[in-house]
Input
Amino acid sequence: MNNIGVLMTCPMSEYLENQLENRFNLFKLWNHSSPKPDFLKTHSNSIKAVVGNTKIGADANMIDSLPNLEIVASYSVGLDKIDLGKCKEKGIKVTNTPDVLTDDVADLGIGLALAVLRKMCVCDRFMRSGNWINGDFGLASKFSSKSVGIVGLGRIGTAIAKRAEAFNCSISYHSRSKKPNTNYKFYSNIVDLAADCQILFVACALTEETHHIVNRKVIDALGPKGILINIGRGAHVDEPELVSALLEGRLGGAGLDVYENEPNVPEQLFSLENIVLVPHVGSDTKETSKAMADLVISNLEAHFKCKPLLTPVL
Amino acid sequence: MADKEPQQPEELPIVLVHRLPSYKIPLDPSFRDQLRSQFHMLDPHESPEPYDSFLARHAPFIRVLMTIGHSPISAEFLERLPVLELVVATSAGLNHIDLPACWSRGIVVTNVSLAFAEDVADCAVGLLIDVLRRISAADRFVRGRLWPVKENYPLGFKLGGKRVGIVGLGSIGSEVAKRLLAFGCTIAYTSRNKKQSVSFPFYANVRDLAANSDVLVLCCALTKETYHMINKDVMVALGKDGVIINVGRGSLINEKELVQCLVGGEMGGAGLDVYENEPNVPKELFGLDNVVLSPHCAVMTPESFEALDQLIVVNLKAFFSNKPLVSVVSNE
Output
């Protein structure tokens, strides 16, 4: 398979790069000095697979410029950077990396909620500044038994619920439709969910319908004692509204792993103590990164050996 | 219905308030009122009479005392209270109380572990996730405006599948176990004695527990036996990627050896809420991204203090009505 061209869209995993280099003719989009469209024109015929991620996937332009593209294997579970319609139209297969990263993302969600409520990062800063000698830190807020609302009760949402239950939290959720086989309380309206919970987790897929699903109304309903945790996509949340709500005290706090314009984070947030900011690390553990990379490789090998794909989306 | 006449303090059951002069009875007014309306709270430091004569005069009637914070209770002090039956401690940790002296007199001791257990467990789990997933370090990275510059952030470690060894499976340790099971961790423990009702694997000593764990969570009391129980031997047994979370007492760990191991890269990381010489913290830890530090605040939530107040009132009432006490410290 060493003559099969595979295009990697951006640096995402050294391990994955090595594995791809060993098996295929790997093109690294970021290494080429010529602008993207020119590069694609030169090598386009030999490229049969694209490996993308949440930063750069496979949009319509890219798909159109790769006439022999057969498969897009995403190093992510989110598919918002892939033009699925175009892929379907052209019979291009798409795979992602579900399940292997579910636990890590859910762990981070709970970790962020604990960090915000218990002021862990503020405490850590306090300690490192040597200020403990001058006086006690003060009170934080309890996490256990708080009411949890989850937007999107898919794999990740369910994993968050399971963890929160171990902390005696009550669980409610909003999703496109009520899920059978669950005792959690369903809200058809996200504003009502926000009004009734103290911690709101965003864990749904990013689609046209869920763009800015967390808007001013939802933020106001969550309120000055409410906490928003976003481990979905930046575009789930109306970021300027979020920023002004935090600055004005209309929202109690937030834990964010994703932003509308990564890697840029609104600077007004840097002075706030009731938020925790991490740089899109939801699945960034050594173990999971390897598992995701292995899944990408397995899917590509399966495709080129005409075997069933392991985790097909299309 | 006519209001009940407020009882004269002299008619109410007597509770001695035992505190170092600098410690105040909890400031919450409603709690203070609750206590004073139901019990005759005798506070020697609020009396103009000299401490010793005040205490001697009331000693024949003092069956219960309530300690504030870490005000020490020694065997000698206990001898001044010949009819004492109950010590109501207002902390979870009891290393300031001579427990063997209490037990040899048949004095029951209650603490407030039950009120604090959830918050301390939350703190332990929060510290562990923070260390493994580098949350505080990542927050520093973003606030330091490094993300656009450095693009990628170093990988963390997965929590699921980690073997967690709990040192001390009391009320706090049990709550930690319950939470970490939901994250896919496996649990084992060490304790003074094997707990018959518990199915987690038991190790008779902490070194063996460490050898079979990836993470140690310290939830036990500080006693002569547990002082510096976590030493270099245990850290080596835990391994190069091992993580220690301490929400017990600083002196459970040989702090000097811990710092050496962390600075030398011989350990995966540590999450610490307590230290050997608070409020002093080894400065060598400040530069490490795999260490998370908090200022002995595992119980510092309004909810904990409310639960604490209620637990104290519940026990005082139970004692005087011969009902069962809660959160009794046992000799096991």
